[in-house]
From TrEMBL:
Domain (AlgX/AlgJ SGNH hydrolase-like) ranges: 92-359
Top-level taxon of origin: Bacteria
Protein name: Alginate O-acetyltransferase complex protein AlgJ
TM annotation in the entry: 12-35
Pathway membership: Glycan biosynthesis; alginate biosynthesis
Subcellular localization: Periplasm
CDD domains, alphabetized: AlgX_N_like_1
BP GO terms, sorted: alginic acid biosynthetic process
InterPro entries the record matches: ALGX/ALGJ_SGNH-like (IPR031811)
Pfam families per the UniProt record, alphabetical: ALGX
Organism encoding this protein: Pigmentiphaga kullae
Length: 379
């Protein structure tokens, strides 16, 4: 179904104009490169064998790629495709009007079930090793946006085989003694989907719901009284909604277009957090050694932990500070591999580690992710 049909007339006309400009600019660019900059059309003298094996045409294509226009032609093509037929390229899918989804979430992987089980075994091994050092582990897996916002997918297809992925993952972890947080349940309790329309990540409502679920699980730990220290309260101020152009607009390559031609931008409140001075005197044996003010909760994860005020919401829900070691693009284990090798972990180990993992990374092909502790120990 064409989601742009209500404005198809102006869009088709504009797309046609853009393509005409691209073609004309391409001719001028190629002429400029060949006649003014005197770029050689081929590196070697053309001959018949070269035409037959494709060498000559490859050299011509390489030369034309060095002319001024090609660097921007891809962006022009992406914009024209979006305006004409609502196409957003290979990485982004458009669902209901103004709802965008990451194609990576929708892709089954060969050998995905075994990769998921191997990752579950690695997490269970890490839990055992951390427990031996007196460190608790909480695993919070972020459900796919396309799972939670299923009602906004419209014609976007999500393979049925992916529906059991999150349930199987949490089941394997729980059977191995790993404590998990059910973020799917927390997000489904919201009146509206807890994800941004034009972005991969959760919105502030989703981040706050996830933080509350993690905090509830942390407070139920036997060691919670000692772990969730030092106490820190926060004053929360809800800001006015402001427009936000999501990362899926950039990933689709159309972020250069005027705002009226883009999917409707998200409106986010930009909540502000301010620490509240705690006048109560701390009572802990750690005071004797000067460690009372050190945070005891560490967070490892991905860009979900770096967006929509997730960490401030988590700190406010836990009423203690959290040290954030999450990494953009960390997928399953990027942050974990870096953190367990770090001086911070070696010199000031936490009492609790919250490990945020995106569901979409669970079945990806393995890439050195099942030797996390071994690599850390070898440092």
């Amino acid at each position: 179904m064409d989601k742009t049909s209500s404005r198809s007339g102006p869009r088709y006309a504009l797309a046609g104009c853009v393509m005409a400009v691209v073609l004309a600019a391409g001719l001028l660019s190629n002429g400029y490169g060949l006649l003014v900059e005197r770029l050689p059309l081929t590196r070697h003298a053309p001959d018949w064998p070269g035409f037959l094996d494709g060498r000559v045409t490859a050299e011509i294509a390489d030369t034309l790629a060095k002319t001024p226009l090609p660097s921007g032609s891809a962006s022009l093509e992406r914009g024209a495709s979006w305006l004409a037929v609502g196409d957003l390229g290979p990485r982004v899918r458009q669902g209901c009007p103004d709802w965008l989804f990451l194609a990576d979430e929708l892709e089954p992987h060969a050998g995905g079930d075994e990769a998921l089980r191997a990752r579950a075994r690695e997490v269970a091994d890490l839990r055992t090793r951390l427990a031996a050092r007196g460190i608790e582990l909480l695993v919070a897996t972020v459900p796919d946006k396309s799972r939670i916002a299923a009602g906004q997918r419209c014609g976007v297809y999500r393979p049925a085989a992916l529906e059991r992925r999150l349930r199987e993952w949490n089941g394997l972890l729980q059977a191995s003694g790993v404590r998990t947080v059910d973020l799917e349940l927390a997000l489904r309790k919201l009146r509206v989907p807890g994800f941004l329309r034009t972005d991969t990540h959760w919105n502030e409502a989703g981040a706050e719901a996830a933080a509350g679920a993690i905090a509830a699980a942390a407070r139920s730990l036997p060691s919670a009284a000692e772990t969730l220290q030092p106490h820190q309260a926060f004053a929360i101020t809800r800001g006015q909604p402001q427009p936000l152009a999501g990362d899926l607009i950039r990933l689709a390559g159309i972020d250069w277009l005027p705002t009226p031609l883009l999917p409707a931008l998200d409106l986010e409140p930009r909540t502000a957090f301010a620490p509240v001075t705690d006048t109560a005197a701390p009572a802990s044996e750690d005071d004797l050694f000067g460690d009372a003010d050190l945070p005891r909760v560490a967070l490892i994860g991905t860009s979900y932990s770096r967006n929509s005020n997730f960490v401030p919401f988590l700190e406010a829900a836990l009423q203690t500070r959290v040290v954030n070691f999450a990494r953009d693009g960390g997928e399953f284990a990027g942050a974990a591999q870096a953190y367990f090798k770090s001086e911070e972990f070696r010199d000031t180990p936490p009492r609790l580690i919250v490990w945020e993992i995106p569901e979409r990374s669970l079945q990806r092909p393995l890439d050195g992710e099942t030797a996390i502790w071994k690599a850390a120990a070898a440092r």
